[in-house]
């Protein structure tokens, strides 16, 4: 229980600070509401299209490829721990893994998945 | 009160059931996918719990469960990518991701 | 530790991965389908050569790569089956791809990667590798289901497949997690060792087993988990459907039997589990056969037929589990029958599907009535397809008859007479719906008179499949001689070799 005490103090302080900042801006800040400002996605500019419209999926392809390539790096954690024991075998495994991943990367690249439009 | 294996296992089981319930009842394909991720993470918690507390000393190989969890995480990411690709393919054609509306063939 | 000979044991899989990568690179530089297909087919010679070399020089079960890889007769048997599937698929899909799918190279690459996963599923002895192999098998299948980009049905099939597949993997993994917690290891031999000391009626063991069976139940389309099969079979491109129906099922059974038997789970008292599996088998048989009888779309009918076939295989598995504790050698006869059944099923179903691909390509329809009078329009295709369907129904002269007889006698001797009786009654129903197609093709009046000429690759495939079927019929005993030690080798880890 005692080890958790600093965490409790820290969390309490963080919450209090957040509340304090919100309260201070509420007191000090100027308030001039207008319909544009009260609208969702308020930024002072009249909205051009309905906010429910979804954005195009071009970026999603890049995003999905990123997920796949990015998370593979996690596989290196166990290897990194054991690399000294595995010696050359471990290094070779790493290289084979990278090579297979590279073929996939080149494939995706050449197929034009990184070019938008 | 200390954290014991029971706590971890109960958390894992509860999360797994929540995920399973969501995967079966949710109508939005993305929500189903998220429920499945919850199930997988429940498995991860269970694995890491067993690995950390290591109840069976017989083959004491502490790290196996954690390595398993790492593999599950990587594979789940690839799974999410594949599933999202399918969702986009459907969305382009039907403009919906509602599993209930995707019904050209009966289930 | 790692030795260079480990690489030799893994060589079939390694060479197949390399082949898939080569095909992938070739696909970047050429759009000519013939090049890609030829490279795939010729390249398959290398893994086939390695498997043959390993089989010829076989001296006993060997493990490699920290006991993750197990090369015994069982894994060699399944490696052969999966390589047969790969070769057939390259041939059977060639024309369909040119006609309907733009991404020809991708189809071959995905198919080859999936076959690597299937081979690994049969030959790994460790839970993490089984999981990775399973997903390596499944991901390409999901993508293959959605390859018909113009068809909404195909995208739908892919989405359903990926969501249900991911859910089943999660359920399976929870079972693995419990198994790991119970035994403290993911090594199947280690699990088998520690199950020796487990008392009867351990609830956790039963729960873990049920979760694992539920997880694999999706892959093999056993009944409470079969809902995906008809939709996905109907929506996916037909060659991909053929691939699902044989590959996914054979690989699912390979891994399930490996875990249940090689992992020694039967050493704990499994009476509740046997009851559960028995009920699943009965439901699978009844629903598969009766639902198939009322279908009008031939791909949907084949989907239910493949569910029914999974039921027969399950009967063999249940029978083996019933006897395992008392008598290993007797129990292994159930697995041997299952292995023989799977081999025959793979060849037959591939033949039937290539026939269906060819005939529905030529007639432009997938309804059973579209097949009317094909005997007058394309005799060779009709005869070959009918032979395959007869074998699926288990009519005497063809191999399918023997595979059913072996399963039924094994199950009867191992103490499951009721299952056998139900399975027999169900196969009578199956004669009705397979027979209906044959009747429509031979005796109904054709819609048009003009002759249909199948493309050379498809007619080669179906002739080869039918020839293989007839050869299997002749060499039944030879195959059984291979299947028996393969089945027994699963028990080897517990019998002190």
Automatic annotation (TrEMBL), chain A:
Enzyme class: translocase
Main location as per UniProt: membrane
Membrane-spanning ranges: 6-28, 59-82, 88-108
Gene3D superfamilies (alphabetical): NADH:ubiquinone/plastoquinone oxidoreductase, chain 3
Annotated organism of origin: Dictyobacter arantiisoli
Membrane topology type: Multi-pass membrane protein
Family, per entry: Belongs to the complex I subunit 3 family.
Name under which the protein is recorded: NADH-quinone oxidoreductase subunit
EC numbers on record: 7.1.1.-
GO CC terms: NADH dehydrogenase complex; plasma membrane
UniProtKB keywords: Cell membrane, Membrane, NAD, Quinone, Translocase, Transmembrane, Transmembrane helix, Transport
GO molecular function: NADH dehydrogenase (ubiquinone) activity; quinone binding
Automatic annotation (TrEMBL), chain B:
Transmembrane stretches, start-end: 6-24, 31-53, 65-91
UniProt key word Hydrolase: no
Catalytic reaction equation(s): a quinone + NADH + 5 H(+)(in) = a quinol + NAD(+) + 4 H(+)(out)
EC number: 7.1.1.-
MF GO annotations: NADH dehydrogenase (quinone) (non-electrogenic) activity; quinone binding
Pfam family, one: Oxidored_q2
Cell compartments where the protein resides: Cell membrane; Membrane
A biological process term (GO) from this entry: ATP synthesis coupled electron transport
A single GO cellular-component term on record: plasma membrane
InterPro entries with a match to the protein in the record: NADH_UbQ_OxRdtase_chain4L/K, NUOK/Mnh_C1-like
Record bears the keyword ATP-binding: no
Alphabetically ordered keywords of this record: Cell membrane, Membrane, NAD, Quinone, Translocase, Transmembrane, Transmembrane helix, Transport, Ubiquinone
Broad enzyme group: translocase
Membrane topology: Multi-pass membrane protein
Domain of life assignment: Bacteria
Assembly with partners or alone: NDH-1 is composed of 14 different subunits. Subunits NuoA, H, J, K, L, M, N constitute the membrane sector of the complex.
Family: Belongs to the complex I subunit 4L family.
Function: NDH-1 shuttles electrons from NADH, via FMN and iron-sulfur (Fe-S) centers, to quinones in the respiratory chain. The immediate electron acceptor for the enzyme in this species is believed to be ubiquinone. Couples the redox reaction to proton translocation (for every two electrons transferred, four hydrogen ions are translocated across the cytoplasmic membrane), and thus conserves the redox energy in a proton gradient.
Protein name as annotated: NADH-quinone oxidoreductase subunit K
From TrEMBL, chain C:
Reactions performed catalytically: a quinone + NADH + 5 H(+)(in) = a quinol + NAD(+) + 4 H(+)(out)
Domain annotation NADH:quinone oxidoreductase/Mrp antiporter transmembrane: ranges: 126-427
Gene Ontology molecular-function annotations: NADH dehydrogenase (quinone) (non-electrogenic) activity; NADH dehydrogenase (ubiquinone) activity; quinone binding
Xref: InterPro entries: NADH-Q_OxRdtase_suN/2 (IPR010096), ND/Mrp_TM (IPR001750)
Localisation per UniProt entry: Cell membrane; Endomembrane system; Membrane
Top EC class of this enzyme: translocase
Coiled coil: none
Mode of membrane association: Multi-pass membrane protein
UniProt EC number: 7.1.1.-
Gene Ontology cellular component list: endomembrane system; plasma membrane
Keyword Plastid: no
Residues that span the membrane, as ranges: 6-29, 34-56, 76-95, 107-124, 130-149, 161-183, 203-228, 240-261, 273-294, 301-323, 335-359, 380-402, 414-435, 456-480
Keywords, ordered alphabetically: Cell membrane, Membrane, NAD, Quinone, Translocase, Transmembrane, Transmembrane helix, Transport, Ubiquinone
Keyword NAD among UniProt keywords: yes
A Pfam family recorded for this sequence: Proton_antipo_M
Gene Ontology biological process terms in this record: ATP synthesis coupled electron transport
Role description: NDH-1 shuttles electrons from NADH, via FMN and iron-sulfur (Fe-S) centers, to quinones in the respiratory chain. The immediate electron acceptor for the enzyme in this species is believed to be ubiquinone. Couples the redox reaction to proton translocation (for every two electrons transferred, four hydrogen ions are translocated across the cytoplasmic membrane), and thus conserves the redox energy in a proton gradient.
Subunit organization: NDH-1 is composed of 14 different subunits. Subunits NuoA, H, J, K, L, M, N constitute the membrane sector of the complex.
Family to which the UniProt record says this protein belongs: Belongs to the complex I subunit 2 family.
Protein name: NADH-quinone oxidoreductase subunit N
Organism per entry: Dictyobacter arantiisoli
